[in-house]
Amino acid sequence: MTKPSLLLRLVSGHALALMLLGSSLFAGSVGLLYAHVLKITAMRDIGFPIAAEVKPLLQRKAMLSEQSEIAKLQASARGSSYREIYDLYVLPEKADAVRTLAVLETLLTHLREKGIVRSIGGVDSWDADGSSADLSVTITAAPGGSAAILDLLDLSGVLTVNDALAESERARLLALTERENPAVIAAVEQFLGGDLLQYAKVPQLYESQLFKAVGTERFEQDFRALADSSRLRSFAQTALLLDGGDASLWPLPLFTVRSAHWEATEGGEVLTLAVRAHGKGDSREK
Predict the structure, then answer these.
(1) Among 171, 188, 175, 167, which Cα is nearest to 231's?
(2) Which residues lie closer than 8 Å to 105 by C-beta, 6 or more apart?
(3) Cβ distance 170 to 212 under 8 Å?
(4) Could you state, in order of their start, the residue ranges of all structural domains in the chain?
(5) Quick one: pLDDT at residue 128?
């Protein structure tokens, strides 16, 4: 074999090897590129849904923050006037015996005009220890009148819808709102801050405004169940006994019944009460 022939075969062999090597490298690069495309696709499929979820969450957080600030401003605006009323009439620094006696006599006179009280016996009052004032009174009431009087004393200290609900019931109402429509926290705060006597006059109006704000039938059903199982309904009915009476009767000072004696007689129900009116300085709570 001549040298040129040998050289030609050697060059041809090297070219074939280089071509095979190039093909292998190209196939490998295509495989890596395909794997990279698959990874990008997977990240897109995973990342886009997460981004789609995160955005509404951020929007909801901002919305709740805004509603919370609105509720605080509204509560502050209402709270200033209600706080003044509460401090002056419901729980003053010190319960004044003379003023408390006047409130009780006005209340019993109003109930006599309604036919609940038939006659009022001796009424007495005196300053007790601390910032309290004690009162004693004997009343002759119509049948069922004694229970109405005790219900009114139980209502004492209540000013708003919020006051008529237990802490657990308020928490439940807020949870229902959060579940259905967290954007209406301000409307719920407005409902809770409403005057109980005004609510008692037209409860359907107050509740319909709340239902309209939340906007779901499930909330309406759950709210009615909550309200019916709470003392809101009974407190509202009792508050109506004060409607049409002297303006000084609402809200009632914070009273506690220290003792009560009831007796049925031919003239009616005789109720003898010992009552304490409280002031802020009194460490004992209702």
Answers:
(1) 167
(2) 120, 123
(3) no
(4) 60-87+162-233, 93-157+252-277
(5) 76
- Residue 128 has φ and ψ, to the nearest 5°, of -100, -175
Q: What pLDDT does residue 81 have?
A: 79
CATH H superfamily, domain 93-157+252-277: Ribosomal protein S6/Translation elongation factor EF1B (3.30.70.60)
In the block, tokens 């897109």 appear at 44
For residue 80, what pLDDT is reported? 55
d(CA 184, CA 63): 10
Q: How high is the pLDDT of residue 227?
A: 97
CA distance 208 to 223: 11
Q: How many CB atoms lie within 10 A of CB 171?
A: 11
Residue with tokens 């009273």: 255
Query: Could you tell me the mean pLDDT of each successive run of 10 residues in the chain, 286 residues long?
Result: 44 44 46 44 41 40 42 45 85 89 93 96 82 94 97 96 96 96 93 96 97 96 97 97 87 95 95 94 55
Helix, strand, coil percent values for the chain (each to nearest 5)? 65, 15, 20
Q: Residues 47-67, buried b or exposed e (16+ Cβ, 10 A)? A: eeeeeeeeeeeeeeeeeeeeb
Residue 204 contacts by C-beta under 8 Å, 6 or more apart in sequence?
A: none
The predicted structure's pLDDT at residue 187 = 94
* Distant-in-sequence contacts of 264-270, Cβ < 8 A, 24+ apart: 265/140, 267/118, 267/119, 267/140, 268/118, 268/140, 268/141, 268/142, 268/143, 268/145, 269/140, 269/141, 269/142, 269/143, 269/144, 269/145, 269/146, 270/138, 270/139, 270/140, 270/141
Report the 10 Å Cβ neighbour count for 276.
19
Report the C-alpha gap between 278 and 280 in whole angstroms.
7
